[in-house]
Amino acid sequence: MPAFTASQAKVDNGSKVVQINSGESVSNVRGGDFLVIANAIVEINRAYIGADNKGYFELVKTWPNSNQLNQPCIVIPTTAEFKTVIAALNEANTLVNNNYKAMQDWQTKTGTVTFSNKDGTTTTVKTLKQIEADNAAQLDAYHPYPWAMRKVEFEARRAANNEKYAASGFVHKGKTNTGGAIKKINEGAQVTEGVPTSLSGYIGLGAPTSAASNDISKTRHPVINIAGVITDLLSLSAPDDSYPVIVKLPSAEDGTRTYDSATGVSVTHATSAIAFASETATNKVVTDRVDMWGLEGFLREINDGDPFVYKNGLIQSQAPDINGVGTVLDNVRPITYFAWYEGDTTSRGKGVNWKTATESQRIAIASDPENNIYFDDETGKFYQWCVRGRSFAGLGNGDWRLLEDYESVDAVRFGGASTYIRLQGKRDVPESEGGDNGRIAYFKGSANHPLKGVSTIGLSGSKSSSLSASEECYFLICGTVSRLNQGAHHPSFNPLGASTFRSSANLGHRKWNHADISGNVLDTQTCFSTTPGALGRDINDGSIASNFSGREDGRYYDAVYASGQGGVCRDMRYKASGQTDVDFAEADLSIKDGTYRGREYVTLTKVHDLGSVLTSGSWDNGQKRLISFQGNIFDTSESQVYFVDGYILSKADNTKRKVLQVGYSPSVDRTNVYLDGDLSATWTADSYLIYSIETNNSIADEYHNLEVIGEPSSLLLCEDLKNGWVGTWNPEIPEGVVKPYHLCRPASNSSMTKIQTSDNGSSWALSNIVADQITNDYTSSSIGSSHVAIIIYKTKAKVVRDAYNDKTYGGELAIGDLFVSSFYGEKYGRLLQYSTIGKVPVSSLANQYENLSITRATIDTSLGKIHKLYPVNHTPLGIVAPNNNSPAFKALNYNVVENQQAFINYAYTELKHNGTDWGDDGKVHIADNQTTMLDENGNTVLVGAARCVEALGWIKNDK
């Protein structure tokens, strides 16, 4: 029987009927024949002519694949002659044994087989494989490369994934190694910090199969979703699957690069001396840099000019093979095509040349859907969806402008409009500067962006044929890293330096407090100077290989740490799946037990002699709380800086007044200081101002805090500190007597380092000290009244920040229990209490923490928020009076969602015990940010709202 072919056939998913629209006769097609359409083979039950005179096939089973419209098809008459033979055999069972071998050969071999009939005659028929082979040429004419995934299937998979997941992001984060030099950042991310290993200086994602891990990820390696395309991250910049995926970062700054915030121009100079000589009010040498990294997804056409394919579409893959086919370095594309960052020459990918690969090699690779290769019947070409890892050095000092997809800005950038990050996609190099050229646009911030849609939630990107064969090029932001620099470390002039100094006699390995160095460093430039015979940095130190750091924490500039200075800051590897109630509950628990990664801006602390006071004005209901003095005390032209803490001290007797706020008025060139309490009638300028403000450098999780103890006049005489330091000032004035110094922040360790001077910094003595972990105090008798001491200890970044009372996610069901504590233990809300009311709990008694039930909660139906006029009621407090005069607080958690991202908010109140009771009214008062109120005993307490510092993930919008 001749083969049946048709040029246009139609069948829908779930249907048993195939309609022939091109007019070919179906009269010779029989039940049991095989229909081949859209690379699928199905069995026909019967053929018939419909009322519309069109031919139809009824299938044995429903069509399981996607809808097919006017696709070519072919019918293979695989069983026609065989059925005749079987009928004959059924009439004579004795012949079955004689035909058994022929039946086996018919199913497994090519050519023909001969069957014996009951009347002694024979019947010769083609075997099944021969029939398929004879029809292959005709089949390929309509459907070439039948082993390849088609574009329609690739897009159908994308559509299904976009429906399945809440956003683009990490489907699975992967696991982490445990033990040895490995330091875990979060699930699926790790570093080896300053230990020399193959992972030194990198971030590792996932864990090899041989490594022990307690992580809950379903896969050992990361799996990502970018706009519906799933990619397994394996062998990305790593030798093979036995290594974690490697995230590479640009080299540390050496003091030779400047960035002009007014123009967005960055220039690398020949020497650091030239760089510092180039500084202006807006053009500064880059020393305090933050890097950003992420993953870029795009579509490539596989052609003669770009013939390589890569394992899982990872162009930086170092996998030795793809599905058993050996790989080689791709030398067709330039090294810039594979670079993680500008100047990276170490990331050339390995793949297989598709044009020279054999048919069997192509089949092995393309048959694996994880390689994301498909054939487009319309264009007659192969394509591969690819992923590139990219990292970016911060252009200037401080943090990136805004990285959240939900912010109302138009593109990812470091600073102004001239600092947009450009996509690269299939290009050899990123798009050039100018206009919208390939800039990584925020889809939510760009209402009319042509790619904006459900699949772009969690992504940034751009639409351009120069970037991608499909014009879709996306970028998934994954996180930031705070970098140390190559300069010599100094607490005031270069707090992020990692190297040591060399003296003017070229004696190296000197830390800032060495007798040859202390008091002689007068500016930041000296920390980077390499001029022989002059004070400067020791170029042999500060790196992992040197094994010598100029920092008290021993960190190196070319290492990446899990947290803190030189460490991972933001971890934005949000999960693609939607957040559940369990996820909210687990996050709330981690915030309270101290395992959540906090994040905040580091503080700069300075001492200022007030000089000549210009005015004493009235503020706040006529109470005299304002003083103003000439000039700007801040190293910024902005009128507003974020004030953290401060005091004014009388030069006469060191009496302290708490400062509420400090600000600068450019129009009159005055600094204004607002005090907590009235000015006395005898107020003079004979005082000091010590204040802390936020810098633009963020820090995460655990870090080393530098806390200075000393009388202001002594600090101003100390060359190493008089210009300020990154850290805190302890308001307890030293007197040379035994006294406790209550540390400003909650200490994570009891063992600390003290560096002390008695001669205004001419010499420094270093010692190891121990603090009380319960009271958070360091007790000393050795700090004299004119001495200056620096205490260096580990602490953790704040876990929440000020917030508004936001709309709850789920009404009253979003409201949790009331958490109450004054207990010192880190697992009992210590960090949450400090992050909300700024006070460290120190009570060690039993029954100092509890969870209380909510008895009434009212939602403002017009706003969806907890009602401010009807405070939340709770059961009475059960915690006992604290010891150590400990502060206490209560906090109510509730779930919120902003722009489809999940957060936890806390409505909190400070608690004070008067010896009899807590003065608590049994209510949770709702307030935006932070303010004060009177408790039932007349004490002024803090009350406010706060939000976790990082989004928990995405919420799936099924509405």
Q: How is this structure best summarized?
A:
This protein has 959 residues and is mostly beta strands. The chain folds into 6 domains: 4-77, Elongation Factor Tu (Ef-tu), domain 3; 81-132, no CATH class; 153-173 and 221-250 and 289-482, no CATH class; 495-558, no CATH class; 602-796, no CATH class; 800-954, no CATH class.
Number of domains: 6
Helix content: 10-25%
- Tally of extended strands? 62
What structural class results from the helix and strand content? mainly beta
Specify the number of helices: 10
Biggest sheet strand line-up: 36-37-40-39-38-41-35-43
Query: What composes the largest sheet?
Result: 8 strands, antiparallel
Content of β-strand = 25-35%
Radius of gyration: 35 Å
